[in-house]
Amino acid sequence: KYLIVGHLSSASDIIRTIRDPEKPNTLEELEVVTESCVEVQEIGEDEYLVIIRFTPTVPHCSLATLIGLCLRIKLQRCLPFRHKLEIYISEGTHSTEEDINKQINDKERVAAAMENPNLREIVEQCVTEPD
C-alpha cells in the first residue's frame, strides 16, 4: 500500500506542472488535473497501472487530445517506476470523449503524432519544466 501512495504522489507531482497549450496556466491551476484524477494499481511485481482521468475546461475543447498527449509523454518520461499508462477524459465532460480516449491510448497514433514536428514542439513547450 505505501508504495502505491508514493507512486500516486509521484504521478500527481509530474502532471501538475504541465502547461495548458493555449493559456499561461498549468493544468492543475485550470483544474484539468487534480490529485484525485490519478489512480495507481499494482499489476505485477514492481509494475503499476497508472490511470489518469482529466477534465477539459469546456465540453468541446479542441485541445483535449493534445492535453492527453502531453500527459502521456510527460509521464512516460518521468515516472520512476515500471508502468502501464491509461489516460481518459472524465466521463461526461467532453463531446467526443470516446474518440479522444481511443486516440490517446493508441501507441501507434501517439507515435505518429510525436513524429509531427509542429505537434512535438507544442508538447515539448507544455511538458518542459519552467526554469
Automatic annotation (TrEMBL):
Q: Which top-level group of life is the source organism from?
A: Eukaryota
| The family this protein is said to belong to | Belongs to the MIP18 family.
The record ties this protein, via InterPro entries, to: FSCA_dom_sf, MIP18
Q: How does it assemble?
A: Monomer and homodimer. Component of the CIA complex. Interacts with CIAO1. Interacts with IREB2. Interacts with APAF1.
Q: Which organism is it from?
A: Halcyon senegalensis
PANTHER family per the UniProt record, alphabetical: CYTOSOLIC IRON-SULFUR ASSEMBLY COMPONENT 2A, CYTOSOLIC IRON-SULFUR ASSEMBLY COMPONENT 2B-RELATED
Biological process GO annotation list?
Answer: chromosome segregation; protein maturation
Q: Which UniProt keywords apply?
A: Chromosome partition
List the protein's name: Cytosolic iron-sulfur assembly component 2A
